[in-house]
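It is worth pausing here to work through a concrete case rather than discussing structure prediction in the abstract. The textbook approach is simple: state the sequence, then state the predicted structure, then interpret. We follow exactly that order.
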Amino acid sequence: MFTLDEAFELLHDSVRHALLDAQDNGADALRAGNFAEAQAALDRARQLQTLEGQITALEAEVERLLAPQEATLSGSVDVSGVVSMPPRRSRRGLKTPESAYLRPILEVLVELGGSGDVATVLDRVYSKMETLLNEYDRSPLDSDGVTPRWRNTAQWARNQLREQGLIHSDAPRGVWIISNAGRTWLLRHA
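Step two, the predicted structure:
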C-alpha cells in the first residue's frame, strides 16, 4: 500500500521517464531524418509535460482537500482552539536537488576528455557525490524497484544541462558530450 506522497512520486517518476524516452526518441528520429517520427515524439513530449503539470495540480488539490480532514483526525487542539498538525515529511526536499549534479556531471565529462557513455559518467558522478547523497537518494525508484533515485535525478540534471546548451543535444543516444558553453560555465563557476 502506498501513501499519497509515494503514489504521487511514482506518477511523477513514471511521467518523467516517459518524457526522457520521448525526447531521446525524437532526437534519434531527427538525426535519422525521420521528421514525421520526430514530430510524433515532440507531440508526445508536450503531452507528457502537460500531464506532469496536471499531476502537480492534482497533488496540490488533494493536499488542500485532505488537510482539514487530517487536522480533525490526527491533529491536536491547543487551549486557544488552534489545530496543530504533527510534522509531515514532504515528498519534495527528501532527495538531493538536480542542481547539485550539474557541476559534477560537467567535471566528469571534462575528465573523460569531453564525452562519455551514460553508465561511465553516472558511475563517476556517484563517486564525486557519494558523501552528499542520503539514504533516500540511494533507495530504488518506486516505478521499477531497482534504479537508485540519484541516477534518475542525475539524468534529469543532464536534461537541464542539455536545455541550457551546456552539453550537446545532438549527441548519439547514450553518450553525453560537454559543449564549449559547458566548459565556459565550469570556468566561470570555479
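Step three, interpretation. Residues 9 and 75 are 25 Å apart (CA to CA). The longest strand covers residues 115-117.
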